[in-house]
Specification:
alpha+beta, Sortase, Chain: A, transmembrane helix, transmembrane, hydrolase activity
Length: 257
């Protein structure tokens, strides 16, 4: 028969065991709950939320595009000035920080893809809320030199998510109040975040006078990282006035759709 001391010792052991089991059980349940919450947050932030924001950005860009056409149909507020070079396209308007002035369309990205372009590349005011930001120190659409823009590759609607899928000859179309500027994609490259010379009038060439009209798209690389920058270059091909029918360059590439 167990003594009184032995019985007390056995009760203490059972109590400690129950407490240990209870603590481990609660800790395990909390860990599972925390993991589920993290998973749901990532699902929302990296997938579902992007779908919602991307749809909103497409819709906003479509509305802006239509407003350009409607304004042109009502007639210009002032008589346009004749360009010095009749063969040159008119220089497209740009705008200040977080002010919308254009629409980017890249048919390779899908038949419903459009993104508004605004001045500046601040995350809070332009990239996170509008979509595509214009480097204010670079040239305007249609201007000799380098019209350079930036956009997210992941999150916030990820307007440049498919930048690495571009193929040589793909259309990159910028619409402003003046009309549509069609550029053709030429090449991709990867640079360090400090490589600001990709924004030069002649990319990566200091002090060289530009003779071509270029577009440069910049985004982060690799995916979900800012270790590098992915850069896409395009060369100006043609200009279509806003009073004309939309250019064929807006159509999906052959074999797509």
């Amino acid at each position: 028969m167990a003594t009184t001391g032995e019985r007390r010792s056995a009760r203490r052991d059972r109590t400690k065991k129950r407490r240990r089991i209870t603590f481990l059980g609660v800790f395990g349940e909390l860990s599972i709950t925390a993991g589920a919450l993290i998973f749901l947050f990532l699902f929302w932030q990296l997938w579902f939320n992007d779908i919602v924001v991307r749809a909103e950005q497409n819709s906003a860009a479509e509305s802006l595009s239509e407003s350009f056409i409607e304004a042109a149909q009502e007639g210009p507020a002032t008589e346009p000035t004749e360009p010095a070079d009749p063969a040159a396209p008119p220089i497209g308007q740009t705008a200040g920080d977080a002010e919308r002035f254009g629409v980017l369309t890249i048919p390779r990205f899908g038949d419903d893809y459009q993104a508004e372009i605004a001045g500046g590349i601040t995350r809070a005011r332009t990239l996170n809320t509008i979509g595509i930001g214009h480097y204010l120190t670079t040239q305007a659409p249609g201007e000799v030199g380098n019209f350079a823009v930036a956009g997210h590759r992941t999150t916030y609607g990820k307007p440049l998510n498919q930048i690495a899928n571009l193929r040589v000859g793909d259309a990159i179309v910028v619409q402003t109040a003046e009309g549509w500027y069609t550029y053709r994609f030429r090449t991709l490259e990867y640079v360090t975040p400090s490589a600001a010379d990709v924004l030069n009038p002649v990319p990566q060439a200091d002090g060289v006078e530009a003779t071509d009209r270029l577009i440069t798209l910049t985004s982060c690389s690799p995916m979900y990282s800012a270790a590098e920058r992915i850069i896409a270059y395009g060369v100006f091909e043609s200009f279509t006035p806003i009073t004309d029918p939309a250019p064929a360059s807006l159509e999906l590439p052959e074999g797509d759709g």
